[in-house]
Amino acid sequence: MTETQLSYAMRNVPRYTSYPTAPHFHAGVDGNAYSRWLESLTPDDSLSLYLHVPFCREICHYCGCHTKATRQDAPLVAYAKTLSRELELVASHLKASGPVRHIHWGGGTPSLLPEQSLIEIAGMLRVLFNLAPDVEHAIELDPRYVTISLSDTLARIGVNRASLGIQDLDLTVQKAIGRVQSYEVVKTAVSRLRAAGLNDLNFDLMYGLPHQTLRSIRETVARTIELRPGRIALFGYAHVPWMKKHQRLISEDSLPGSAERMELADAARSDLLAAGYRAIGLDHFALPDDSMAIAEEHGELRRNFQGYTTDSGEQLLGFGVSSIGKLSKGYVQNMPDVGHWRRAIEDGELPVARGMELSTDDLLRGRIIEQLMTDYRCDLSATAASFGETPQGLLGSIDALDELVREGFVVVNGWNVQVSAKGRPFVRLAAAAFDAYLEGSSAGTKRHSLAV
Ligand SMILES: C[S@@+](CC[C@H](N)C(=O)[O-])C[C@H]1O[C@@H](n2cnc3c(N)ncnc32)[C@H](O)[C@@H]1O
Ligand code: SF4
């Protein structure tokens, strides 16, 4: 198979921000299951909290996130109120739990919540949970709405990491994606955050956008490097207009083809490496002294719904519509509709729509996939042993790696699986060999037994 054929094959392979992936969640897991799982937590279970805010001032044409546009503040205030009640509700189901190591506000644009609401919710987090002294407290920000007052408020409530959506700085590209923000706007946002003491920054960039050229993406990277954020995420634009109708505003003729996409990604990547950033996993870059680069060096990089992370919390609790939580027992996802979510919470019910209980086999395969995605290698025997299992049940997955081995993308040595340097862009295919739920998978028989 050529690299181009492999890149086509990858389109049908998940990004593995969870295993099993979210389409396998089902309504059999409800608020009662979540309540039991929460009650079974112990003081040894450290926590991560994810708070989802599904609002933006306007919707960018490319956006694949769960969010909607609002010009008014009333829905934001009402949402914050319900979010506070959800925090109380979930906390009331915890008999015991360990320290919170990581808080992440995602969206949408969570900083659109009125500053008073942000202050109140952050205060509640301190009252309801035991925050670790070195808790990482991160938020996603839209640079167009970063004021001096917001920056100060964020610092005051303990936020210590911010991620800014940049995407591309070229005006032609920006007009085509419905997101015009000049370099000056970005620079001002960065200086306001830094002046408030918020120094740990991430920039989101994208390749594969309409009208993007090698020249334009390299210029975006060059200007990004001038501002020196500790981390940069470089996402490939996922064009799914059948799921996200507003993406139809992007003309398909203006999109780069798959060979051009690879060239754009390669150009951005080599400029970032030349500027001293280290490549982390599939789509992240970090300066050597950033905690993500350090975590990767120590084999402590993790992968969750936010992508690559240094989050070391063992149990992830999700708040807000559509948020996903992950406990040792399984996944839970909240209702996607604000009205349904609010009604459940007002009735004192956990607003769970669906989820999935995890078997030992799921947990083992999930860990193997995570190790491949983060470390590009896995000792199957050691990982199986950490779940009290032997690796024999993984032989079908090793066979499924054959094609990648022949291509020189993967090396299998006994129970050790290693993704080679040239195989790294295709790591998702190696991960897919261990996915027992994937259509046509030879990783296990689960898919077939489920189908009957
Ligand atoms: C919640 S937004 C970031 C915060 C803020 N809302 C903003 O846009 O500035 C999350 C990120 O997801 C990425 N993203 C959104 N839609 C995408 C798509 N269709 N394909 C790939 N990445 C996408 C963008 O890089 C975006 O910055
Ligand atoms: S990219 Fe960010 S600002 Fe734009 S619509 Fe999506 S979540 Fe909102």
The number of strands is: 19
Ligand inventory: S-adenosylmethionine, iron/sulfur cluster
Global mean pLDDT = 93
What proportion of the residues form beta strands (DSSP E)? Answer: 15-25%
Helix content: 25-40%
Shape: globular
Instruction: Give the termini separation.
Output: 33 Å
Largest sheet: 9 strands, mixed
As for the number of domains, it is 2
> CATH fold name of the largest domain, please?
pyruvate-formate lyase- activating enzyme
User: What CATH architecture label of the largest domain applies?
Assistant: Alpha-Beta Horseshoe
Q: What Rg is obtained from the alpha carbons, in whole angstroms? A: 22 Å
Low-confidence stretches: 444-452
Number of helices: 17
Q: Which CATH first-tier class of the largest domain would you pick?
A: Alpha Beta
Q: Structural class, from secondary structure content? A: alpha/beta
CATH superfamily of the largest domain: tm_1862 like domain
Please state how the strands of the largest beta sheet are arranged side by side.
9-10-8-7-6-5-4-1-13
Task: Give a description of the structure.
The two termini are 33 Å apart. The chain has a nine-stranded mixed sheet with strand order 9-10-8-7-6-5-4-1-13, sandwiched between helices. Strands 14-15-16 form a three-stranded antiparallel sheet, with helices on one face. α3 (74-92) packs across α11. It has two domains: 21-316, tm_1862 like domain (pyruvate-formate lyase- activating enzyme, Alpha-Beta Horseshoe), CATH 3.80.30; 360-451, Arc Repressor Mutant, subunit A (Orthogonal Bundle). It is of the alpha/beta class and 452 residues long. The protein is globular, with a radius of gyration of 22 Å. Residues 444-452 have low confidence and may be disordered. Helix content is 38%, strand content 21%. The chain has 17 helices and 19 strands. The chain has helices at 3-10, 31-39, 74-92, 115-128, 148-156, 171-176, 183-195, 214-227, 258-274, 291-297, 338-346, 360-375, 380-386, 395-400, 402-406, 427-432, 446-451; strands spanning 47-53, 55-56, 68-69, 100-107, 131-141, 161-167, 201-207, 231-236, 278-280, 284-286, 302-304, 307-309, 315-319, 324-327, 330-334, 352-357, 377-379, 410-413, 416-419. S-adenosylmethionine binds next to β6 and β7.
